[in-house]
């Protein structure tokens, strides 16, 4: 039995055709770490926080198993819609039955998806946490080295 979930940067939506095409083009022209970085940082952070982004890029290159990262990235990009809805909103709605904490960084690329996921879950069973300094948390070795 699951007592609860902590979901980081969850996106309840599958990848659309435009995202798929953009991913294919980016994959042909960019190295894997450069493909992953826009998922971890907002465009503003990529442009203004170059030292942190460079540090993260080096950590991805030097400490993360590239084969495993490629497998993870392929699975992420082939995700499908979770088709979740609040209980009572739709007949036989699929939803989480355990408590959930949704965590997202302020201005993170996943912010819109996490807010949408929050709207689809039972508010009495869901906590929404927005972290203001998410880039520093994202780049900690304990998270990236386990990818």
UniProtKB/TrEMBL annotation:
Pfam families: Ndr. Gene3D superfamilies: alpha/beta hydrolase. It comes from the Eukaryota. Belongs to the NDRG family. This is NDRG4. It comes from Dissostichus mawsoni.
